[in-house]
Write a structure and sequence with these properties.
One of its GO terms (biological process) is putrescine biosynthetic process from arginine, via agmatine. Pfam families: Arginase. This protein is α/β, with parallel strands linked by helices. Helix content is about 30%, strand content about 10%. The protein binds 2-acetamido-2-deoxy-beta-D-glucopyranose and manganese (II) ion (MN).
């Protein structure tokens, strides 16, 4: 005989009523059994890093595009766009892959030993806002979706009001947004969004490729839509005045060129270059020094193409190039930016379908962002340099 559950419950309560009165009554559910201190699943219920819904580093999720009820100082947002890619597609799965690769970031609490700070308990509120819905059928529309989605979560009062703490006098305190790509085209709508808040910005760009190519050089530009892709977005950004000229730098470059004129055009777009192979002569310290000399005290936007890493460390990417840095070297170089004012960041070109079963690429992407996130939380709420807000 099969008894329905309510019948069993009724039966057991009858049994309990007639049993020894000295016995403790049946209680429960025993929440302590499955509740613990991990903050995943919105901080409500999480039993381990390997179960439950993935957010970046298991931080709380809030659907920020649908609701502005939760405030934040740092927001992660996915931009699952990969129809601007020239070789391997698949970066539309980057946001979910990076979240999967980030599960263990705070397994032991998340304290960053070399940076001497814990980004998960650094005094700033960090949320995972999910993904911007992006069409895969119309690039122009998708790029507008990314710009407006990014801008919607950028133009909000942050959780921690820097003005109230007397840190900023500009009255323009905004949260920092970290975007999970997506192919590198997404950086163009992000820069357009940032421009609406800050004007031209200084970019530190980790990549094996220049991405300042003129459309006629890269892909031949058969149409206006095709001219905006993951090899040309910085050209457009420069022409649109989104970059603060002569302050930007690429690091990790090792691509072949159409010819030496690509470098001339790159300088015209406002960039200096540190080549990947320079690590052999100047080391990570020398590379950090070059980056810091170039950007000075400017607030910076950090854009990380995972292909700045060698394919041995990050095979799952759209256009891999051998001769790159190791994950250790990239993380050291990113940590070398500690103390700079990072206003926002992205990591792009993670295409998990080409990854190893051991998730090399998604882990590397998550760990690179962990360094960025630590630098941001160490710096406290985002503030602009006094009297410079209108200028940069
Ligand atoms: C950026 O600065 C460089 C070096 O001063 C200059 O040659 C170039 O024309 C400038 N580019 C733009 C787009 O204004
Ligand atoms: Mn690249």
């Amino acid at each position: 005989m099969i008894l329905p559950a309510f019948a069993l419950l009724a039966l057991s309560s009858v049994v309990a009523a007639h049993s020894d009165h000295n016995q403790a009554p049946v209680a429960g559910p025993y929440k302590d059994i499955w509740y613990n201190t991990l903050p995943g699943d919105g901080g409500i219920q999480a039993d381990s890093v390997f179960s439950g819904i993935s957010t970046f580093g298991r931080i709380p999720y809030h659907p920020c595009l649908a609701s502005d009820e939760e405030k934040y100082d740092i927001a992660f947002i996915g931009a699952p766009f990969d129809t601007g890619t020239s070789y391997r597609p698949g970066a539309r799965f980057g946001p979910s892959g990076i979240r999967q690769g980030s599960r263990r970031l705070n397994l032991y609490g998340g304290y960053n030993v070399p940076l001497k700070a814990n980004p998960f308990h650094g005094g700033l509120k960090v949320l995972d806002c999910g993904d911007i819905p992006v069409t895969s059928y119309d690039n122009e529309w998708a790029i507008r979706q990314i710009e407006e989605g990014h801008n919607s979560i950028l133009m909000r009062k942050p959780f921690t009001d820097a003005n109230k703490k007397g840190i900023s006098k500009t009255g323009k305190t905004l949260p920092r947004i970290i975007t999970l790509g997506g192919d590198h085209t997404i950086t163009l709508p992000i820069l357009r969004s940032l421009n609406r808040a800050y004007g031209p910005v200084t970019v530190v760009h980790f990549d094996s490729h220049l991405d300042t190519w003129k459309p006629k050089v890269f892909g031949g530009s058969p149409s206006k839509t095709a001219s905006v892709n993951h090899g040309t977005y910085f050209y457009h950004a420069a022409m649109e005045g989104l970059l603060k000229n002569d302050t930007n730098i690429h690091a990790g470059i090792r691509t072949t060129l159409s010819g030496p004129s690509d470098y001339e055009n790159d300088g015209y777009c406002g960039f200096e270059i540190v080549e990947a192979r320079e690590i052999d002569t100047i080391g990570t310290d020398g590379i950090i020094k070059r980056i810091r000399q170039r950007v000075g005290t400017n607030p910076i936007y950090v854009s990380i193409d995972i292909d700045s890493l060698d394919p041995a460390f990050a095979p799952a990417t759209g256009t891999p190039e051998t001769g790159g840095w190791s994950t250790r070297e990239l993380r050291t170089i990113i940590r070398g930016l500690d103390g700079l004012n990072i206003i926002g960041a992205d990591i792009v070109e993670v295409a998990p379908a080409y990854d190893t079963a051991a998730e090399h690429t998604t882990m590397a992407a998550a760990d690179a962002l962990y360094e960025v996130m630590t630098i941001m939380t160490k710096a406290g709420p985002l503030t602009l340099p006094e009297n410079e807000a209108d200028e940069w």
